[in-house]
Design goal:
Elements: H1 7-25, E1 30-34, E2 48-50, E3 57-66, H2 80-97, E4 102-120, E5 126-145
Length: 146
Amino acid sequence: MELKNINIFKKIDFKFLCFSLFILKSCYPVSHIIIGETQTPIDYDSVKVYYDYPDAYEKIAVIEASSDLAFKDLSIEFTHQQKTNKALDRLKKEAASLGANGIVLQNISTSIKQHLNFNESNAGKISTSIRHEKQKELNAVAIFVK
């Protein structure tokens, strides 16, 4: 038995590659470095945002978060404010998981990511397109306010 159309295998491999890249890209865009003693986790709605350090506090961790796409809290934001809110929510959730009841914002930035897309037409021609996406990145220090 001879296979007449092998293009379907190429398309399956290409779709698998795209799916694999999507999974890898969709890792949760939050990280932290512990710099103090962690506390018992709390509800993230209880985490307050500070611009400057309060009078009595303990530093727990340095946290970084972005508005990049993630499976863990899948949503697509279009405006700068929505992207800032998404990154801030991620900061608060991470801080709460470490037992911090406050975060002190250190930096808010906007970065531009380039996405290169490859498309194959029915005629077998491959075309490319480039798309730019802005995302918000926030850095903060997670603190425990006494």
